[in-house]
């Protein structure tokens, strides 16, 4: 639709003198919506910039708040958040809808804490409606910020019609309360919501699942079915995270009967992850083969399944298949295959893959991936190579890297390299008593009793205490 637009953003001055031409500002939001629907991000960016320039020249911006709000949303959807924030900052009197739009933009770009802070500093400027409160609570859920969500909840109860408030903000409130273990609060909010709305049930099920309350999540799922509420793909995705093998197979059957083919990659990726977690790699691979359109997440889940369950060579085969089919692996793929090499002792293969991902694929290794290489080399007894690798890292190694070296040194009873790792760990995290205990045990195992005592005395001198071990017994 916008192929005729220039290749670069149009500055306001680049638009001809259009002043005096009649223009209805109500057209601009609709044009901006069309611009963000461009399949090409490049075209969307240029189209939004051009419409911004045109709106300024014709006087529709920033005088028209609906047009300005639409522009904020359009810039956000075009992945131009700084431009969206600048548009908002130029509004002399932002409306409630303006705040809703900019908070949504910040949340969409992974900055919910900033959204909450922005609202807190400007709360007196507007009277929040149900939509703004819903957006704020959603930001709180993403930021796991309980107190601001409670404040929004209290305000909504006092100032907004209950039906409208819980219909909009209820799901996010339920999800947040459940994820923070506030079961009673979650159920009370849920009681005010439409009991036949699957979104409400998904919030409850997903909230419990994210809090690790698997039994509650599964019980909620079964209660939903007992009430005759038909779940959707989202329901299956959230409940699969809390399923064991038996319940997971039940959900699998429900998925097949309700959703038919395996075109929904997100849903089937969750199913693969469930089987992988239960150790059923064959079932996970069977699901993988049934997926019609595999995305990079599908490959990552399958590679991770092989890695976690000790099938290192199969994981390497799948990485080759990813590269051969023309799909670009991402950092998750990188980490998963390195973990597979670590678990299965595939040292040389892991080193080759590391170089391949960095030099050919162009991925920048993370600290976790560097720690995998250190662990891979050190566990194979190749300590000099591990130390050389650490010295060549582009970033300063952290506790994960040095911890991997210390752990491998303990396994091989190598005092020399254990001392190197320990000295670095003391500098990076001097408050971690576990490192002192590990080093003391290494000395003791090597018969270096005086050194073991010296390290133990260091714990007492800085008043450190190793966290006590805990265990639990389930009474049937």
CATH overall fold name of one domain: Serine Threonine Protein Phosphatase 5, Tetratricopeptide repeat
Low-confidence stretches: 1-21, 472-476
Q: Estimate the helix proportion, in percent.
A: 55-70%
Characterize the main sheet. Answer: none
What is the N-to-C order of secondary-structure elements (H for helix, E for strand)?
HHHHHHHHHHHHHHHHHHHHHHHHHH
CATH architecture of one domain: Alpha Horseshoe
Any overview of this molecule?
By secondary structure, the protein is mostly helical. The protein has a domain at 382-466: Alpha Horseshoe (Serine Threonine Protein Phosphatase 5, Tetratricopeptide repeat), CATH 1.25.40.10. 70% of the residues lie in helices and 0% in strands. It is globular. Keywords: Repeat, Transit peptide. One of its GO terms (molecular function) is RNA binding.
């Amino acid at each position: 639709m916008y192929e005729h637009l220039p290749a670069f953003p149009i500055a306001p001055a680049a638009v001809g003198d259009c002043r005096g031409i009649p223009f209805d500002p109500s057209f601009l939001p609709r044009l901006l919506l069309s611009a963000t629907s461009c399949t090409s991000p490049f075209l969307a960016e240029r189209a939004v910039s051009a419409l911004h320039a045109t709106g300024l020249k014709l006087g529709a911006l920033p005088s028209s708040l609906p047009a300005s709000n639409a522009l904020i949303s359009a810039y956000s959807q075009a992945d131009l958040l700084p431009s969206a924030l600048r548009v908002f900052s130029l509004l002399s009197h932002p409306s409630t809808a303006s705040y809703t739009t900019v908070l949504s933009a910040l949340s969409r770009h992974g900055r919910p804490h900033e959204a909450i802070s922005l609202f807190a500093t400007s709360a007196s400027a507007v009277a929040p409606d149900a939509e703004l409160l819903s957006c704020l609570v959603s930001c709180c859920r993403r930021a796991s910020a309980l107190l601001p969500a409670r404040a929004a909840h209290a305000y909504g109860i006092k100032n907004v019609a209950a039906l409208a408030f819980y219909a909009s903000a209820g799901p996010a409130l339920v999800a947040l309360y459940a994820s923070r273990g506030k079961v009673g609060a979650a159920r009370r909010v849920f009681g005010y919501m439409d009991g036949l709305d699957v979104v409400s049930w998904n919030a409850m099920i997903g909230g419990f699942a994210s809090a690790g309350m698997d039994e509650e999540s599964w019980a909620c799922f079964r209660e939903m079915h007992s009430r005759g509420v038909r779940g959707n793909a989202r329901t299956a995705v959230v409940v699969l995270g809390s399923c064991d093998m038996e319940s997971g197979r039940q959900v699998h059957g429900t998925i097949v009967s309700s959703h038919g083919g395996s075109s929904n990659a997100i849903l089937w990726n969750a199913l693969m992850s469930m089987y992988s977690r239960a150790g059923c790699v064959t079932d996970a691979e069977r699901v993988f083969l049934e997926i019609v359109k595999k995305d990079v997440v599908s490959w990552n889940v399958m590679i991770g399944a092989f890695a976690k369950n000790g099938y290192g060579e199969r994981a390497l085969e799948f990485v080759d298949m990813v590269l051969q089919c023309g799909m670009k692996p991402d950092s998750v793929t990188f980490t998963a295959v390195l973990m597979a090499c670590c678990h299965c002792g595939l040292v040389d293969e892991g080193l080759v893959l590391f170089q391949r991902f960095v030099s050919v694929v162009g991925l920048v290794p993370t600290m976790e991936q560097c720690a995998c290489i250190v662990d891979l080399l050190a566990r194979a007894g190749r300590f000099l190579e591990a130390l050389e690798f650490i010295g060549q890292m582009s970033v300063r190694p952290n506790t994960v890297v040095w911890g991997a070296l210390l752990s491998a040194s303990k396994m091989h009873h190598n005092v020399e390299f254990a001392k190197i790792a320990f000295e670095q760990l003391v500098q990076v995290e001097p408050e971690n008593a576990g490192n002192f205990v590990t080093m003391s045990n290494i000395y003791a195992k090597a018969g270096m009793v005086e050194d073991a005592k010296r390290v133990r005395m260091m714990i007492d001198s800085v008043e450190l205490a190793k966290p006590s071990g805990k265990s639990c017994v389930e009474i049937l």
